[in-house]
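Batch job 17 of 40 flagged for manual review because the log was empty.
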Amino acid sequence: MAAYDTYELTIIGDCYRLLAACFYEPDKPLFVEQKVCSNLAMLLEKISPEAAEAARDMSKNLLRQEQQQMLVDYAALFVGPFELPAPPYGSVYLEKNKTVMGDTTLQVLKMYQDAGLQVEEKEPPDHIAIELEFLSFLCAEEVRAHAQQDDERAGRLRQMRHMFFTTFLDVWVYRFCEAVRSGTGNTFYLALADCLAAFVASQQRHEALSV
């Protein structure tokens, strides 16, 4: 069974965390100050060169954006009040009636609870940013378990990470990314969709070796 070492797993967790940040309401000055996109590109070089290239495009395109236009384009894609071209909720892509807060949403919430977490965000638990943050959390906890030489807990966390990725995120994220590509002309979000899709594809290839 293939497995990441703790160094690789730390990088993966950081990639999930930085990608999650990009799917919350944008704050261009903060993104630039914290070098979110350039740091993401640097980390992705070790994981997925294709995703790293998209992250570099994100960094370049971010500098060309006006904060207000980013907010407008973000809302048009992901918030409303009108029909959303790219709903950021897994249930919309996984439920037959394409509704928010479906059965799959509750299943995602149960996995958070099983991991000892509570969702404090106003968004439904299967929002793309929250799912990415959860995977980042699982990576970090697995690294911590290894550091404590708690192999049993590390194994449980690894299985949870594998199950969540393959059962939930991986099965809807590509349709979501395609919806983003079709739904906006904003170059930052176009590059973000490319980055997320390439990164998840790299993880999918690894997870396929882990069963």
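Reviewer: the log was empty due to a logging misconfiguration, but the result itself is present. The two ends are 6 Å apart (CA to CA). Unflagging and moving on to job 18.
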